[in-house]
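Retro notes - structure team

What went well: the batch runner handled both jobs without manual restarts.
What didn't: labels got mixed up in the shared folder, which is why I'm recording both outputs here explicitly, each with its sequence directly above its tokens.

Job 1
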Amino acid sequence: MKRILTYETLSETEFGLSSTAKQFIPNTFLDITDYLDAKLSLLTIYQPELGAHPFPRSLDSVRAQATLRGAQMGVHAAEAFGLLKERL
């Protein structure tokens, strides 16, 4: 199986220069419950890209987004994607 997915990026996905910008609407979710702490730890490698909460790319915001997406699919933490194309 091959997939083309779009990825949700905090502070990039929701910013648009016009009122006609398309909103990210996920239709594919991946349970990251077992990997969330490792993800947050690895994000600190990109310290210049992180800010203090309420900055969208803060560790608190990344955890909150994972928690929200997890609640949408019934797990502790998830990442959301937009499936554009899939070949089985």
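Job 2
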Amino acid sequence: MEIKTKSDLDKIISENFGKLIIVRFHASWCSPCRALANTINSLTAEESSGVEFVEVDVDEADEGFIEEYGIRNIPVMIFFKDGLIANKTVGLRTKQDLLTIIDEVKSK
């Protein structure tokens, strides 16, 4: 799901409270961003159970929204749990890294 504003994100968080929400900030021209998208797409249904993935194209999104979350480099993933930021990563991650972070955040 692609969003462009903070109000879009707030709505997703309220509608999916209790789920882990991972917001991926990216751009179409960014090679590491595309590689991270492939990693996310490689997750099985079991591996991504209870997780909602959201995408924000930094070239299309509201500039204030990007600034609010301090996005200066991409790709960035922000992990929300119960409406709060539980983790933030910058850069490309392997599938195993991503699964480890998901497990850690879910267990908090």
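One thing worth noting from job 2: The longest strand covers residues 20-26.
We'll revisit the folder naming next retro.
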